[in-house]
Write a structure and sequence with these properties.
Chains A, B: Catalyzes the sequential NAD-dependent oxidations of L-histidinol to L-histidinaldehyde and then to L-histidine. Chains A, B: This is Histidinol dehydrogenase. Chains A, B: One of its GO terms (molecular function) is NAD binding. 2 copies of one chain form a homodimer. Chain A is of the alpha/beta class and 435 residues long. Chain A has 3 domains: 154 residues, 3-Layer(aba) Sandwich (Rossmann fold), CATH 3.40.50; 182 residues, 3-Layer(aba) Sandwich (Rossmann fold); 37 residues, no CATH class. A 6-stranded parallel β-sheet of chain A has the order 1-11-10-9-12-13, sandwiched between helices. In chain A, strand 4, helix 6 and strand 5 form a beta-alpha-beta unit. In chain A, helix 2 packs across helix 9 and helix 5 packs parallel to helix 7. The first copy, chain A, is globular. Chains A and B meet through helix 5, strand 3, helix 10, helix 14 and strand 13 of A and helix 5, strand 3, helix 10, helix 14 and strand 13 of B. Strand 14 of chain A pairs parallel with strand 13 of chain B.
């Protein structure tokens, strides 16, 4: 049974707080194992990667780590025309959305004569980790690789493990549609180490993104600093706020779509309408046993599913901000007005015709989003993750004359005399008319 | 003696690579100590913070953790009118620069009928760490606090240790000019823990920024995920590219300004003009002994100072990109043209009248910049660090009809049936004319 709360309960605050801080993930401590793997890859390069792949994936890579163009063509030829069309439509829509995110360079000259601004440049090389086996999602390839390509990354690398040699042709097709340059059939901490430090075959990259298991997450934390990484994703969640005339089956399916991801996923329903909330819960219970992934979805719903009845929508919006959900579905009469009352969410889906699942695949916005309340301070994946900003300044002699004395003064107050001298030496030349 | 390289040397590549990967920092492993402190603050709150402050800062905070308005007024009254004016000019210029960084919300409707976009919202509360003692820099207070205020952060907190009760009045004045709401006289890992988890007195924040020693850095890594953090700054560096008619004394002072920060700092000079390079080095050697911080600057210059003579400026630009310097000074005839040839730098200073020190204090751009080659993949502090982006989507029934089938297809290929059903249930209603 999910957790039922009502804001009218006298102990609601405590119960809500308990729900909010429920631990949904027991990350195994794999740091020592990961440190050993990374050290091995740094020391022995390709040989280490081959040995580890034989051990963990039961796969002999003595013929090479990379997929050849022929192998990719042979695999992607297996994809049906319908799947290919769906993937292409998704890729085009994701590309169009992310193209709008490209930020602009700026440059201006202020009244003192200082020309200031910034410019954006892409990272040179990015590596995308794609999990193997059941969680090998072609949609994630698009969501990670397309923003990198849009940002202008020159070299885009994928590592995807293929345990026992099993390949997902749709993953290779997604990589092709996204314009990936190199695909290596390696996984785990060894793949992260290879991308961060390089091997004989694999040149190092500057940024690594993409989801993975506990070993991959620990390896990403480990190499952070040597390369950039995206966020370390935790278990996923959806919050549906419902009110007015809504189809309970649709909302139940939205909650179940989250729950089927993972037993650690969380589905939350908030409504000022207790009857509607009960109708949605009844639909969840009816539909759950019919799902192929009933065991996973059932565990998530039983352990973390939460239903909260509120006095009104304002209260729902306030609770939503405390949850800071990864996905926020507003199935209410005026979703735009309610969206204005919330501040913290990874993605907002407005109205009953906008199921989260459409956004997971084809709407265009990224599905890599901040989990576990981190939407309070972070954003989903975007082209910005593959760009960096360089600030620019250019002072005219007049500008230095106008602002330099303050720098000299502040340098003195901080005890940094060479800082002050580097400005005052120039000012003296100016004042002396020499130079 | 600094490292002298010339790209004409037969073993230049190896020697450059050795320089690039020189280890400049031996971070002590303080993780266990920091974990203990954080656990103590989480368990005992204010009492733990008071005990730790008594132990580490020899300071009794039984009267309260925060500076009172009267204390702040009494301290800031000690600041001279000249220092106050310099700090105010810096604050105004930093505010004006960062105000231009505010990104815009976007929203559009595509031909399929999908309304898409994103919006930016500030984090609700940010905490700024300010080191105590010698490294208690008022300029850093401005550089961290002003972007947060410009972003619209509602609650802005500072923690600054005051060992033995010693306060830097300029730090308090900078906090006042930047509009900080609460100032606590605590430091170290206990301050980071207090801001991340909250105590009886200090409400938790969502994002923590600011520099600190090994304990502070380890504590920030520790609480990352619970709150957002800025980068973990490493030792600082400057790269000066020089050519044409330049004043060797000015460039020498720019190199020394970097070196005086820290014995781990690095100053690099690249020039195609060996005579100019030698003249700058001679000025460094002449000026070094005259500096109050000669010991620090001398150690940095001796251990990490590097001079590289190149065939031409193109070669200099290529080496600069491999270094990816935090600060890049282009003291050449056409600095704008040379800037166009580089891609990776935290900040670029164009021309001989733009000493880095002006940018450290008053030019306007932020002085918190990516160190240790991380400009390959990251940017300096900005208003973006205090904002997060929420993606928005709103599908019309027609839009769902146009893109929903692809989502259903991709969900099936990934084995996520509830995802597919949440879309197809809506499509059936549409096609059946019901709903």
């Amino acid at each position: 049974m999910p957790i039922f709360l009502n804001t009218a309960q006298p102990d609601f605050d405590q119960r809500f707080d308990d729900m909010l801080h429920m631990k949904r993930e027991d990350a195994a401590d794999v740091n020592d194992a990961v440190a050993t793997i990374i050290a091995d890859v740094r020391a022995r390069g390709d040989a280490a990667v081959r040995d580890l792949t034989k051990r963990f994936d039961r796969l002999d890579l003595s013929g090479g780590l990379a997929f050849s163009a022929d192998e990719i063509a042979a695999e992607t030829a297996k994809v049906s025309a319908e799947d290919r069309a769906a993937l292409a439509q998704a890729a085009n829509r994701i590309r169009a959305y992310h193209a709008r995110q490209m930020p602009e360079d700026m440059r201006w000259t202020d009244p003192e004569g200082a020309t200031l601004g910034w410019r954006w440049t892409p990272v040179s090389a990015a590596g995308l980790y794609v999990p193997g086996g059941q969680a090998s999602y072609p949609s994630s390839v698009l969501m990670n690789a397309i923003p990198a390509r849009v940002a202008g990354v020159e070299r885009l690398v994928i590592c995807v493990p293929t345990p026992d040699g099993v390949v997902n042709p749709l993953v290779l097709l997604a990589a092709e549609l996204a314009g990936v340059d190199e695909i290596y059939r390696i996984g785990g901490a060894q793949a992260i180490a290879a991308m961060a430090y390089g091997t004989g075959t694999i040149r190092p990259v500057d940024k690594i993104t993409g989801p993975g298991n506990a070993y991959v997450a620990a390896a990403k934390r480990h190499v952070f600093g040597r390369v950039g990484i995206d966020m370390i994703a935790g278990p996923s969640e959806v919050l549906v706020i419902a009110q007015g005339v809504q189809n309970p089956e649709w909302l139940a399916l939205d909650l179940l779509a989250q729950a089927e991801h993972d037993a650690d996923a969380q589905s939350i329903l908030i409504s000022p309408d207790e009857a509607l909330a009960k109708a949605v819960v009844a639909e969840v219970e009816r539909l759950l046993p019919t799902l192929p992934r009933a065991a996973v979805a059932g565990a998530s719903w039983r352990d973390y599913g939460t239903v909260i009845v509120t006095r009104d929508l304002d209260e729902a919006a306030a609770l939503s901000d405390r949850i800071a959900p990864e996905h926020l579905e507003l199935c209410v009469d005026d979703p735009d007005a309610l969206a204005q009352k919330t501040r913290h969410a990874g993605a907002i889906f407005l109205g009953g015709w906008t199921p989260e699942a459409a956004g997971d695949y084809v709407s265009g916005p990224n599905h890599v989003l901040p989990t576990a309340r981190s939407a309070r301070f972070s954003s989903g994946l975007s082209v910005m993750d593959f760009l960096k900003r360089t600030t620019i300044s250019k002072l005219s002699p007049q500008a230095l004359a106008a602002i330099g004395p303050a720098a000299v003064r502040l340098a003195a107050s901080e005890g940094l005399s060479a800082h002050g001298l580097s400005v005052s030496a120039r000012l003296e030349t100016l004042n002396g008319g020499a130079g």
